[in-house]
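In this section we walk through a basic example: taking a raw amino acid sequence and producing a predicted 3D structure, encoded as discrete structure tokens. The instruction is simple. Fold the sequence below.
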Amino acid sequence: MANVSDGREALVQEIDRLGARLGSLRSAIGEMVFGQEIVIEQALVTLLAGGHGLLVGVPGLAKTRLVETLGTVLGLEERRVQFTPDLMPADILGSEVLEEGEDGRRGFRFVRGPVFCQLLMADEINRASPRTQSALLQAMQEGEVSIAGQRHPLPRPFHVLATQNPLEQEGTYPLPEAQLDRFLLEINVDYPDRAAERQMLIATTGAGGATARRVLEPGELAQAQGLVRRLPVGESVVDGILDLVRSARPGGEGRADLTRLIAWGPGPRAAQALMLACRARALIDGRFAPSKDDVVALAAPILRHRMALTFAARAEGVTVGHVIERLVEPLR
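The resulting token sequence is shown next.
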């Protein structure tokens, strides 16, 4: 019994210590990115849960600045790839080149691409062709890439934060459903309010500007990710996650008036993602366990890229966001 008590005490102390560190982390990011508190929180949830994030918004909303700042404050090796229609898979993963040694023998040497880093920014990912987009599938799911039949492990931790322009803009390609499911959260980046935009205007157009500073030391992010998986989750939260995800499927366990609107819905990976994300959000707030409020707050970014509505629903003007709002009502 004493061992159990000691274990809980150690867990509480670790949560308290890391909670304070994560508070400093949010403050450091807020010095660089103005008026996007929810976006910052969801990006941190993504990384603490060990996943990948998709930032969706029009150009000029500081998506790139956010990713660069995250790389600095978290102490991660960060690289950026600008996705364009002519980008090829080898430009991301790397390729084998033929070389001749001093002895005259020829052989192939693998030249690593920019994917070999800890935080990869895939900028405007939906401007590249589906073939190039799919080059990231294995890297995002398995943490390695295969070139010429050889597997090459990626650094740990490895995260992808991709930015995407809304599909209604010209020159974009929709991401395949299989790749969308690899993103833990879809984070909508909206326009800042007037006060935040005023602060941004003053801070970024003067002679001097703020620079990002490292907050976490190497290894602390991995430690926090391990702690996220140790946070206890109550039965009511587990049941709430299952009820929500299963009700978001066509012909599922939800209300018939809602499930008839859904063409395809989230699989078990969505429930896993929601469980981890709720734990990560609780840790960021310094809480010892997630609640149903976390499920409600994270339902939309977890589910909206894992669902599609029927043609009839879209013709009626129904959106995925509207459906999710109604699905989470029983949890409020």
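Looking at the output, two observations stand out. The mean pLDDT is 86. The chain has 15 helices and eleven strands. In the next section we compare this with other chains.
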